[in-house]
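Hi support team,

I submitted a single chain yesterday and got back a structure, but I'm not sure I'm reading the token output correctly. Could someone confirm the output below corresponds to the sequence I sent? I've pasted both exactly as they appear in my results page.

Thanks,
R.
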Amino acid sequence: MEYFPLIMLALLAVLLFVLPARQRKKMQEQAAAMQASLTIGTPVMTSSGLHGTVAALGETTVDLEIAPGVVVTFARPAILEVRRPAGADAVGDDPSRPADGTV
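Hi R., thanks for writing in. Yes, this is the structure output for that exact sequence:
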């Protein structure tokens, strides 16, 4: 019984430090894979909620066309998610997919 507080402290350390670090690393790997998969013409959403289509790719930047003839430049990490074009496939057929068109 004298080691019980130490065991609880060790378990608490694992819960508070190790598990979140693993989750953060997994999310960073997914973000890096998504950014590496970007191609011209891909519909995306930025972290600020701006929707656009990739017009050009730089090493550290992405040019997005947000309206016909309007192109803005963002840093690659600002790309939050790849969007599916409207009508690409029926979203309503698969209940496990979000109805808002996210991939």
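A quick pointer for reading it: The two ends are 51 Å apart (CA to CA). Let us know if anything else looks off.

Best,
Support desk
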